[in-house]
Amino acid sequence: MTPGTKETTEQEFSKEHFKEAGLDFLHFIKNLVLALVIGAGVGAYACLFALLIDWATGFRNSHSWLIFLLPVGGLAIVGFYHLLKVNEPGGTNRVLKSISSNEELPLKMTPLITVSTAITHLLGGSAGREGAALQIGGSLGSSLAKVIKADKKEVIILTMCGMSAAFSAMFGTPLTATIFAMEVVSIGILHYSAIVPCAVASLTAGFMAKLIGYVPESYPLVEFPNFTWLYGIKAVGLGLACAVISVVFIFILHKSEHYYKKFFKNPYLRTVVGGLLIMGITLLIGTRNFNGAGVPVIFEAIRGNAEWYTFLLKMIMTALTLGACYKGGEIIPTIFVGAAFGCVFGPLIGIPAAVGAAMGVCGVFCGVTNCPLASIALSFELFGIGGLPFMLIVAAVSYRLSGYYGIYTGQKIMYSKDLPEYINITTKE
User: Fold this and answer.
1) Strand pairing report for 412-415 and 186-187
2) Mind listing the pLDDT tens digit for each residue in 131-141?
3) How many CB atoms lie within 10 A of CB 226?
4) Which residue among 62, 150, 366, 369 is least packed, with the fewest CB closer than 10 Å?
């Protein structure tokens, strides 16, 4: 066979193609091993963190006087961040910004957010914990990448792996955890390059949760009616309402932080004022349902029981807490708001209260995070796959009509929500 013939060219191409395939396979194995390590390590840490928060919640519930120490706890949190020279904690936003801009995510964020979130829950701040877990997972994943001297692109993958692992371990939703990490960073783009490592990390973290003995909350399965065109119309209406509630929640959260900083420039004063406000409202309303994550209220809403004002009060209490330098997450408060709102609004348009609550979780979660696929996955992992057509509509409508607002200011919206157009903007506050 003479050089330069078609057969020779094909042989050369085949050898080069085989070589590239071999290199890809080695890289695949490397990512697989790192995902297993992250899934095991982050999963174990996230479970221990969850158990710590459960203990703090139980201790607070049996010692109601701890609410009076909330301002003191706020001073401690601000002091810890100042001591470790973290002047811009950023929360989950910092994790998202680190992914999009290749910024370093320091390991010290992990103990800081762990201790600070535990203090917030112990003393009665109104916040979640899964958002804090995302910060923990992202920080640990990024730190492992630094240890192995990974390149910038691999750092992104490993940070997303950490987020998936932490979300999966604490929520018990491996599919949602995988999709959420791939979807939340750049809206309009799914980072498919991370699908294998995120899936492996997520499933491994779930295995670690079982091994440690941590059992995430199991919400009641919802009995959905047969889907009809009339229910489809009603789902559009609920999706629209969820979009409005999502924007209101985002507005309250961001404006709360803005006005805290405007009127109380000193962070120590800011956290004391916030602690006093939360303490005062708690004593005024005479219930502790809005302190901590508020999981019992979510359970009641999914069973079809919620007062009309519940979701409004949770939005206010969460905004007052997170805006005043207390730490925690936004995900469980979002589920609280969605369940309580859907439970109340659903029956007004002819949707059973329990079904409305489940749809509200999907719609509001989608509206504040801009993650429709993760929202749908979360819904059927929590409430059963029977409600898929309901969730598909409510998520799609909420995503489309919630505009370019978002709970995470570090999030990038790469493509327009109504046209196949590249826009590359950050979410509005």
Assistant:
1) parallel
2) 778 888 888 88
3) 7
4) 62
pLDDT at 124 over 70: yes
Give which of 156, 205, 253 is closest to 49, Cα–Cα.
205
3-state helix, strand, coil in the chain (%, to 5): 70, 5, 25
Whole-number pLDDT of residue 20: 55
Q: Give yes or no for a contact between 137 and 91, defined as CB atoms under 8 angstroms apart.
A: no
- Structure confidence by residue, pLDDT tens digits, 343-355: 999 999 999 999 9
Q: How far separated are the first and last CA of the chain, in Å rounded? A: 67
What one-character DSSP code corresponds to residue 46? H
Q: Which residues of 18-49 are buried (b: 16+ CB within 10 A; e: fewer)?
A: eeeeeeeeeeeeebeebbbbbbbbbbbbbbeb
**Residue 148 CB neighbours (<10 A):** 12
Instruction: Supply 301's token pair.
Output: 């809403």
Instruction: Report CA-CA distances (Å) from 92 to 64, 99, 131, 252, 266.
Output: 30, 11, 6, 18, 23
Torsion of CA 8, 11, 17, 18, to 10 degrees: -150
Task: Give the side-chain half-sphere CA count within 13 A for 72.
Answer: 6
Backbone angles phi, psi at 253, to 5 degrees: -60, -50
Residue 338 above 60 pLDDT? yes
State the virtual CA torsion across 75, 81, 82, 83 in degrees, nearest 10.
100
pLDDT digits (tens, 9 = 90+) for 207-246: 999 999 999 888 888 899 999 999 999 999 999 999 999 9
Residues of the chain with pLDDT > 70: what percent?
92
pLDDT confidence of residue 412: 87
Asked if 366 contacts 208 with a C-beta cutoff of 8 angstroms, the reply is no
Q: What are phi and psi of 388, to 5 degrees?
A: -55, -50
